[in-house]
Amino acid sequence: MLYFALWFIYKTNKPDPDVKNQEERAFSHEPCIFVLWHGQHFLSPFFIPNDKKFTALVSKSADAEINARILKIAGHDVVRGSGGRVREATHEKGGVSATLALKNKLKAGENVAVIADVSKSEPRHSGRGVVSLAKISGRPIVPLAMATSRFKVVEKSWDKTTINKPFGRAGARVGDPIFVPSDCSADELDTYRKKVDDELNRVTIEAYRVVGHSE
Q: For labelling, which of 37, 72, 148, 186 has a CA lying 20 to 30 Å from the CA of 170?
């Protein structure tokens, strides 16, 4: 039911005239690592054209089970694990195995999608998992943001979750690709992580601007 509700919301929002250009921009560097912010990602499965699929990293938590099922119904693949933070011992969390699974997907020519910020941590502050995946895979990070002109912000949520509403306008913006060198140091990883934050914030603001809001 939730899948069809999201599909209905997506279909009843008039798309920004530039949506086709944004789709082409999104897939100009594939296979790539799409990144989105927590609470701003609900319509992302529907932005992807029918002939394009991705594998999404979804937490192993019970709360994330709904997200995983929606993605699968939409025709996308799912890897379960915790990939936001880099830990010394993440086998029990699924972090190492999830990262390797995503790396293999990219090696096979498939796109992947990751929520950049770490759940229940600082919102809109990406973890090292995304840049680490880009480093070991050699594939670019592509920031992606979607917005609708009608929405409800859940103010009490840690990430200010945004619930999209139907019968408005929809906009999507795709950021510049970010390549992480395979030989970059730990300190340099933080520099690239900051680049991800800045570019993802920029396209999020731009996505809201095109539907008539200042995000």
A: 72
